[in-house]
Every structure is written in structure tokens, then in C-alpha cells.
TrEMBL record:
Stored SUPFAM superfamilies: TSP-1 type 1 repeat
PROSITE patterns listed in its UniProt record: SMB_1, TSP1
Protein name in UniProt: SBSPO protein
Ranges of residues in domain SMB: 3-23
Domain of life per record: Eukaryota
Keyword Glycoprotein set for record: yes
Keywords in alphabetical order: Disulfide bond, Glycoprotein, Signal
Amino acid sequence: GPCYCDQECGRSLDCCHDYGQSCPVIPCVVSQWSAWSGCTEPCKTTYRVRRRHIVQEPRNGAEACPALEERAGCVEYWTRQGTECQQSLIPALITTGGFGKARKKRAAADGSERAGYCVQFQLVAITPGCRHSHHSYTHWMRYLREGRTVCVECQHPALRSSTQHCYGDGTGSQKNQLLHWQAVGNHQCRGTWRRIRQLGTCSCPSVHSFLFI
């Protein structure tokens, strides 16, 4: 009789003798990725999305289609109305202070170096993801501990020429207000802190010094 292309026959072991020739595997085909969307919410660390759709469904035992949606970390410093976010609402993006030396060398080389400053914060809450990352470039995150005082330096190019501040430094925040931060290189490492004061220079131990991005 005719061979019906029902891939379930592979499980029930009653396929036609010529099933492989009559019912070849038809793989899934998906479209190209769409452009990335904007951030889902302004003035906070969220995510952006890109999507693709199925052009051809898999048949005859082919593998399932791959993911049709991807998300990536995202932060926007402007509201939907086009105004700049309040400093107290913008999450601080930080990395290890070890990158500061290379950053200063580049700034000095192109003549764009400007005097920066440092802000002291007391860490209030930290997600477990800061301790669970094992990549070499994330080892600095183990020095983030609740209750510790840390120094975060604002230097070129993160230092904005228009306001002479870095995004997320807490300028204009109220006393004891909880502010948000996000570690660059590990989206699962984030938390809150309180701004203590602004310093002309950083005076914390090097392992407790970080950079605004």
C-alpha cells in the first residue's frame, strides 16, 4: 500500500519499507533575526528583544526548531518623551577598578583626559549571581559584600562633558535612598547601595574600587 509519512512510525516500529525514500527528513527553516527592539523600560537595567519566525516546519523526524526569541541586557538613559532620566533612577553600571589604568592611558594619549572623582557607597543588597560566576574576568565580583563600603570612580570616557557626572552616580538622590547597580560581564550580579559621599580622589583599597561604565 501507499507509504504514509507519519513520523510516529519510528516509535511504533511499523514504518513502510521505503519510508526513508518516500518521507525524507525536512528540517526546520527559520528567518533571519529581526532588528533589536529598544529597552523594555527606560531609566533602569532591563532587556531588549529580537525575534525570528518559522519559514518551514520540521517534518518526518527532523529536529525541533531553534529558539525564536533572544534577549540581551539593556539600559536607556532617556524617557519615552525624550527627556533625560533622573540620576537617582539610573542604575550604575560598574566594573573592576583594574580597567582604570588602561582607560587613563588612552585618555592621556588622545588629549581627552579630564579630572574625575570618586563616590563612596555602602552595599546593601547583592544577588547570589555575583558569587556563582567562575569566569576569570568576573573574579572581581567576589569582593562585593553586603555592608562593605566601596569606591566607584568616574573618569573619562564615562564622565559626561555636559554635566561632569557619570550615569548612576546617585547625584540628586535623597539621603539613605536605595540606588541600583549592575555588574558588567555578569547580568546576574546586581544589587542596591546607598550613596555616602563624593570624593575628589579614591582612597579605598584597590580590591574595593570600581569604575562607572
